[in-house]
Amino acid sequence: MKNYDTTRHVRGESLFADDFLLPEGTLFASVFSSSIAHGKIVSLDISEVEKHPGVKKIILAKDIPGQNQIGGIIQDEPLLAENEVHFCGQPIAIVIAENLLIARAAKKKIKIEFEELTPITDPREAYAKGMLIIPPRIFSNGNVDEAWTQCDVLVEGTVETGAQEHLYLETQGAIAFPTEGNGIKIISSTQGPTATQRAACKILGLPMHQVEVDVMRLGGGFGGKEDQANAWAAIAAVSAYVTKKPVKLILPRQEDMRMTGKRHPYSIDYKIGLTKDGKILSYEVTFFQNAGAAADLSTPILDRTLFHATNSYFVPNVKATGLCCRTNLPPNTAFRGFGGPQAMFAMEAAIYKAAAKLGIDVSIIQEKNLLTEGDEFHYGQLAENSKARACWNEAKEKFKFDEIKSNVEKFNRENQLSKKGYACMPICFGISFTNTFMNQAGALVHIYSDGSVGISTAAVEMGQGVNEKIRLVAAEIFSINKSKIKIETTNTSRVANTSPTAASSAADLNGKATELACKNLFERLVDFVKDEFGFSASSKIEFEDETILGDGNKIDLTWNELIQKAFFKRVNLSAHAHYAVPGIYFDKEKNKGNAFAYYSFGTAVVEVTVDCLRGTYIVDSVKAVHDFGKSFANVIDLGQAEGAIMQGIGWMTMEEVIYNSEGKLLTDALSTYKIPDIHSAPKEIEVHFLENSENPLGIFNSKAIGEPPLMYGIGTFFAIQNAMKAFRPGKEFQFSAPLTPEKVLLGLYKE
Ligand code: MTE
Ligand code: HPA
Ligand code: MOS
Q1: 383 lines ligand 2 (CB under 6 A)
Q2: Which letter does DSSP use for residue 665 in this model?
Q3: Alpha helix segments (H runs only) across 322-441
Q4: CA-based radius of gyration for the chain
Q5: Whose CA is nearest to atom 1 of ligand 2?
Q6: pLDDT in tens, 469-498
Q7: How far apart are the C-alpha atoms of 163 and 236, rounded to whole Å?
Q8: Helix axes 340-358, 634-652, angle to 10 degrees
Q9: 216: which residues sit within 8 A by CB, 6+ positions away?
Q10: pTM over 0.70
C-alpha cells in the first residue's frame, strides 16, 4: 500500500504528536480521574500534591477561565468534574509538572472522598428510569400494525451488540503552546481540528482566532478522535494558558482505554413479518443505545442507526425507534460505521430467525428483498443507482455460492467435531454526514514560484490515504509529477470552519474542494499562456506531463518555466475553494429527506470452520464484490476494504469490552482485550471491484470506502452460527455479539 507517508513510516521518520521536538521549559500534564462510576465528590484535598517537588500547578474545575463544558452537540459534559462524577475515568484534576514521571507520581497523592451512588450500566435500565438524553427518535413509513395482519409469518426477538475499543496505535494526546497576546497553538491528534479549536476556545473563553489547531497526521482514529480528542487538547490548552508554558499530554494506553468512550453497545427488540415465500412486509425495531454518561456524538450515531435499520433491503412498512440512554459508562462515541453496523446486525438477525421459521435458506430472503432501482427508504430517499443486486449477483456467481454451500454440507456430513458455516452479507451505507450542514470542505492551493505545489485542506490523514488521494487529484489536473506536490498539515488558520475527517467523506469533500481550487488555478494559467503566446480566446491549451500544448502543438515551455513566467507577470498562484455537497437535505421533525449524496453497496460471502470441541473458530475466507465507483487509487481502496473487514470481524467475534456492575472497565489492557492479529485474520480475503460503476458525486467518479466494508464482518457472526447449527441442529442460538469462543462453546453445550 504505497501512499504519501509509506516511506517515512517505514523509516520511522513520520511525526506523531508524541514525536515533536519540544521547546525548553515544556511541562507535562497527567490527568487525575474518578475511580467510581457514579457519586458525589465530598472532599478533594490536593495539599500533598502541591508540596510534591517538581509539581508546577494543579488545575481543578474552578480554575477553568472559560466555561467548563466540552459537549459539542448537547452541552452536558464538563471537562473536569465539579461536584459529581458520572463515569469511572472521568477527569477531575490536571497535575502539571516539570516531567512526566513527577506528574504521574504526584497525582497519586490527591485525596478524594466520594458519596457513592448506584451506577447504571444497562441501557434498558436507564430507559426504565427515564434517563434518555433526547426524546425517542422515530423513523417510519407505511403502517406496521396494519401490515402484520397481511404477513404469513411473524418472528420477534432481541439482539445484543457489544462495544468496541478503537485501539488506534497512537493514543490520545496534544501539545499546547502559549502564543503572543494570550493565544494558544495546539498540536493535536484529532480528526476534527475545528471541533478541537471550538472546545479549547470555550474552555479558555477565547475567540476562535486566538486558538490555532494543527494536525500532522494520526496514528489511527477510527472515529475515536472525531469528538474525543477535544478533551485532551483542551486540557493541554488550559494547562499552557494557566502556566504560560508549553504543556504536553499524551495518554498512556491504559488511561486511554479507561477514560475514553467506545463503539455504542446496543440492546435491540425487533419484530419482522413476511409472506410465506420470503417477501418482507413489515419491520419494527427499537434500539436501546448505551450512550454512556454524556451525549457526545450519540444522537447523530442513533440517527444513522435509524437510517440503516433495513440495511440493503426494501421494506414497505417500517417503524424504527431510537432511544439514547444515559448510563454511567464513559461517553460512547463515533466508531467506523457510526451506528450503522448495529442496525444492520439486527436486520440480519431478524432475517435469520424468519428463515429458520420458514424453513428456507437465509439467502433466499436476502435476495428477494434487496433494493432495486428507485425503491424508497423509510426516510423518503430513493435508492437511486442501486448496485445492491448487481453486487449480490456478481458475488454469488464469481465466488460460486452454490458450490460453497454444497462443499460446506459435504464437509459437515463427513466431520463430527469440526463444522463449517457460511453466510452472505449484503451492505448498503449512505455517504454524507447525516447533519447536512457538515457536508462542506475547503482547500487552499499554492503553486510556489519554483513550480512545486503545497495543498492544505480540511482532511486529516489517519492512515486511510486521504493525502495521497488529494495529491492524485492535483497531479491529474495540473498534469505534473506527484512528487512536486506536498500535502500540508491540517491547520485551522489555513482552512477554517472544517468538518471532522469522518463519515468516509473526507476524500470526496476535500478532493472536490481541491479539484475546484486546482481548476481555478489551471484556468488562470491557461489565460496567461494565451496572452503570453498570442493564442486566440478559443484556442485549446493543455497541460501534459509538465509540458504545455497550444492547439495540440508543444510550446517550448515546461511547467516550471510557465510558473516562473506567470509569477513575474503577477499572476495569482494561490487559490482557495469551498465545496458543499449539492442536493441533500433532511427534515429533522418529519425525519424525511435526501440525507445522503449516494450509497455504497456490496455483498460478501464468508466461510468459517468451528472447532466444536473447543469453541474456537477460523475464518476461512471473506470474499466480496464491492462497489468502489470508479476507483482512482485501487491499492489504497483495497487496503481500506481489507482493514475494515478485519475490524468488523473483530467487533463481531473476539473483541469483548467488559465493564463490571460497578461500571469499572475490566478489559483495560491488551492482555484482556483481544483484537484480531495475523493468526485470526481470514485465511483468504478477496475483494472484487464492481465494474461499470460511475459516481459523479464522488471525487473523480469514485465512491467513499472508509467505513462500508466493516459491515462485511457481520457475516462472520452468522457464518459461525451456521456452523454451530450443523453441530446442534434445531437448537436456537442467541443473537448476542461478540460471538467469542467462550460463547460458542456455551452455545453448543449449555441447555
Ligand atoms: N483507516 C485507517 N488506516 N485509520 C483510521 O483511523 N478511520 C476510518 C476509515 N479508515 C481510519 C481508516 C473511519 S472511521 C473513517 S470515517 C474514514 O477512514 C475517514 O477517512 P475518509 O473520509 O478519508 O475515508
Ligand atoms: N458520520 C460520521 N460522523 C458524523 C456524522 C456521520 O454521519 N454526522 C455527524 N458526525
Ligand atoms: Mo468515522 S466513525 O465517521 O470517524
Answers
A1: no
A2: B
A3: 340-358, 362-369, 388-398, 401-414
A4: 27
A5: 503
A6: 999 999 999 999 999 999 999 999 999 999
A7: 28
A8: 60
A9: 15, 16, 17, 20, 187, 489
A10: yes
